[in-house]
Task: structure prediction
Amino acid sequence: MATSESVLISGLIGSSPPMLDVYRMTRKVAPTAATVLLTGETGTGKELIARALHELSPRATGPFIRVNCGALSESLLESELFGHAKGAFTSANENRTGRFEAAHGGTIFLDEINSVSYQLQVKLLRVLQEHEFERVGDTRTIRVDVRVIAATNVDLQDEITAGRFREDLFYRLNVIPIYLPALRERGDDIIDLVTFFARRYAMANGIPVPTITSDAMRFLQQYGWPGNVRELQNYIERALVLSTGGEIMAELLPPHVRGLAPVRIGRRASEDLESLCTDLVSRRLAQVGEESTDVYNQVINVVEKELILQVLRQSQGVQTRTATRLGINRNTLHKKIEDHQLGSEAR
Result:
């Protein structure tokens, strides 16, 4: 059985069990020519894994081409991916090489693949199946030797159901799926990540590496991180710039990280729970009564308990799934389950 040291990938931070699974799969798949679909929330490091797949492959000496499919309109994206011939449209003053052609002999990384229009997906499917295409406005067929790695932060099965994504393209992309866990699912890595970013930004700003106070680290470990590693990176850079005396203290973290403002949760979770929260608050305010001296605290306590209870039941008692839906750290959820005596509902 491989040790953690042999599994770790240079440049990637974290040795929690979920990340070790990602590293093992990455190392196993990298030497092959198989198409890979990276899934996971925004900010979980999908591009880093895509680069690792390229650099650990026989194509490492070839180009690595990244395309953000969500950043371009349909017409621009088609030209960007496949190139165009001179005169194909008004501003096409010369032939242009597309990203697939530029990636010949290497790897192309299609980020936000879910953003590609339904019509353009047909052309992508052909490249995956036949390894050939035509430039926009041209009839000459171009053959390429390219490995495709795609990434998405949405459930493509839902997109298929909604009629926005082709089922045949999904199966062609989903040869090897690799799921990138959210930061709240790999809380054991937070200390290593904080230390890494503190050193990086200290060097970039020419200042000594700061220490992280125990209070600050506690808040960082308890927070749910809806923005994942990218959000953590942002807050550490901000705290380092504002710090004095060589310390990153809790006061330098945003209020919502310290529990002084409403916890930010993911969009899907908030959409699912918004109506539930509104209903619970209305009912409990009526039960507690407006003349109570501590209405707010009573309502918040009762609503929090019922909210956690209902999401636990919806998640069949699985704490990891419950924490993900609520947008909080699993350790925080465990403490709240104990506080509200909901242990019989959790497994």
